C-alpha cells in the first residue's frame, strides 16, 4: 500500500489553480461527437482516467469494452453501442460489476435492443447483440435513479427512427446533470422538449451537427479548494480557480452557494472565481439530490469545523465507486466526528464531535473523492492519505496542485 503524508499547511496562501477540465462535460461531448461521425472539434478535454477510457473505447474495434471503474463510461457506451448497432461485451472492474445497470438495459430492451447478461442479471458484464427495429418511442423511468441512465437515453434519442419520449416517475434527482445533457445536445444542434412539471422529456428524430465545443473546468474538483480555504487558519488566505464560469452547466457549481454557509465567498473574475474566507454559520442543512458528488467534501468540512450538519438526498452514494456513506462513517470517526443515519436512507447528520490525538490515516476505498475530500485536513494538522493514486480517475494533477500550499511526502 502506498500513502502520502501531508504536512500541516501554514494556513496562509494566495494561489492560482488551473483546474482539471470537467469529466462530466467531456464524457457527454465525446458521445455527442461520436454521433456526429467524429466530425466535431472538442477543446480542453479532461485528462481524467474516465475520459481517457471513453476516448480509447470509442476508437477501439475490439469485441470487449472494459470501462475499468468508470460508471459514466459504462452507461453512456452501453446506450451508444446499442443505438449504433455495435455488438460489444461491456465489462469493468469487480466493483464496476457490482454497480446496477438493469434500469438502463431494461429501457434499451423495451426500445428493441437485444442485450444479454453474462453473469448476474441487472449488472455488468453484459453483451450487446444488436438493435434493428424500434418497438416503441415511449419509456417510463424512475426519476430518483442515476441521472446517467436518463442522459444516456437522451443522447441516443434523436438517432432513433421514431425519436423518444421519456416519462419520469416519482421524485427527480440530479436535474442539473440532465439539464447539462440537454444543453450540450442543443450545442450540437438537437432540441429536447423538457416539461419538468409534467416530468416528460421529448426528443424528435434529428441529426447532430458537428461543432467546435469548449469544455469548462471541473466544479467537482473546485470543491476541494473551497474546502482548503474553509479550513485554512489565516483570514487572508485566497485561491483563484481558473476556467470556471458563472453560468455553468455543471450541477456541482452549487458548491459556491453551499460554501457561503461554511466560510468561503466566491467572486467571479475574468479568469475564473476567487475564493476568500468569511465567517461560517453555526449549523448547516442541505439537500444534495442535485449534487451528490459534493457530499464527501462538505461532510469533511462540517466535521473539521465542528459544525452540526444535516444532509439529505445522498442515498445514491451507496452505489458509487464505493459505498460512500459507509466510507464516510468509517473515516470521519478518525477525526472525532460521526455521520449518523437519522432517517433510513433519507437523512443523515454530521455530529457527536470528540477530540482526537492521532494523525488520521484515511482509507480511500478505491474512490478518488475520498482522497480529495480528506486532503484539506492538512490545513488543521498532519494527515495521511492511503492509495493517493486514485485521484487519476477525475483530477490527475491534484497532488501537484496541493504541493503548492503544503509539503507532501
From TrEMBL:
PROSITE patterns: EPSP_SYNTHASE_2. It comes from Leadbetterella byssophila (strain DSM 17132 / JCM 16389 / KACC 11308 / NBRC 106382 / 4M15). Belongs to the EPSP synthase family. It catalyses: 3-phosphoshikimate + phosphoenolpyruvate = 5-O-(1-carboxyvinyl)-3-phosphoshikimate + phosphate. GO terms for biological process: amino acid biosynthetic process; aromatic amino acid family biosynthetic process; chorismate biosynthetic process. InterPro entries: Enolpyruvate_Tfrase_dom, Enolpyruvate_Tfrase_sf, EPSP_synthase, EPSP_synthase_CS, RNA3'P_cycl/enolpyr_Trfase_a/b. This is 3-phosphoshikimate 1-carboxyvinyltransferase. Its EC number is 2.5.1.19. GO terms for molecular function: 3-phosphoshikimate 1-carboxyvinyltransferase activity. Keywords: Amino-acid biosynthesis, Aromatic amino acid biosynthesis, Transferase. It is an enzyme of class 2 (transferase). Pathway: Metabolic intermediate biosynthesis; chorismate biosynthesis; chorismate from D-erythrose 4-phosphate and phosphoenolpyruvate: step 6/7. Residues 15-60, 66-401 form the Enolpyruvate transferase domain.
